[in-house]
Amino acid sequence: MKLWSGRFTKQTDKLTEDFNASIAFDSRMYTQDIRGSIAHASMLAKQGIISFAEGEQIIAALKEIEQEIADGRLEFIVDAEDVHMNIETFLTAKIGDVGKKLHTARSRNDQVALDIRMYLNDEIDNIRELLLETEAALLQVSSEHLETIMPGYTHLQKAQPITLAHHLMAYFEMLRRDVERLDDCRKRVLAMPLGSGALAATGFNLDRDCVREQLGFDYLTRNSLDGVSDRDFAIEFCSFASILMMHLSRFSEEIILWSSDEFSFVQLDDGFSTGSSIMPQKKNPDIAELVRGKTGRVYGDLVTLLTVMKSLPLAYNKDMQEDKEALFDAIDTVKKCLLVFAPMLKTCRFQKENMAAGARRGFTNATDLADYLVSKGLPFRDAHAVVGQAVLYCIEQQKVLEEMELATFKTFSDRIEADVYEHLDIMNCVAKRSIPGGPAPETVKKAQLEAAQWLERMQDVHK
To answer: Do 330 and 427 belong to one domain?
Structure first.
């Protein structure tokens, strides 16, 4: 018999039971549901709503149930619909009528709102740790390539020379913002909704702060209607997850390009590559491709939640059962991608010679020639035109700027002297860009030191 069947005169149709049940996916929250119920029972006893003996009996039984589920000795049943009613059913079967008192002054509406916030908070810890491990991998690999010259790109066309360290640190900055977004998201997760009831709180004298403190929430929800119907925190998490996946996807795209024969900038480790069933020579960057592909999946999770919530009247509606699968999928996908990304990156073998050769082609030092002419007193726009003509000449002659003889240089501008070759040297082009945020090795090293200090502070936050 359903725990809510008093008002009904007919059994639920089997099709309705299957369609309505969420136990197949919300069972993963059983630990959080039991923790929340233990805190609720403890508070009910403290407030005299149930006796201390009854509270102790309920709490002891809930702990037994949690262990039995963990050991595989209890199986969830579809007839009980969801994780909350499954556990209450187990509890009543174990201790009888006392178990039925647990739901006093509580609704499944505020119960699920509590569980999902607790579950997400726990998973934020896991994702944050994986994210910081990826940051540490970026910092480690970057520190090994302070003087590894490579071409920087705009429009996927060679632009100016940089270092691999500088390039990798750009992704460090992206993921740093992701960590900050995740920490900020948690602030909205840690609002304690229990006590909101179905929508209008309860007439019982609950001590909501007592429950909040037991469960580690920062503050109470301030409105019972909002307390049961708010899923902003889940949407915000999926927004964070989507931005993070976008960053991982951008990096994955570059790894995929760099590992191609056309670039030959990186060799992926065999452990993070796959082969072809028909072409024996192939070594495919499948891990990076999958990360890139799974990004769309997480975007879909965000759009799912936004669409579910976009037209719901207050307060709780059954549509909101659809929040969990999308949220859980975003959590699982992000964790899987982060788990594999750091070791893939740490085992990459970067082809330094090919990167440097790439920087020496494509006239990546053309801007430095223009800057050189500016330092000789020529207005930048005029210098820009002069260098454009020089580049066109080199293209026609199939040579690079630094291969041009001084006499030929002077046909484009008599301001050019023998010292121009020093300014065209690729390493010098990078080294002179030493202002904060620039790619000069000394500047990047300082950025890495600051990044290491930030990373240490972030790792210490939850110790």
So the answer is: no
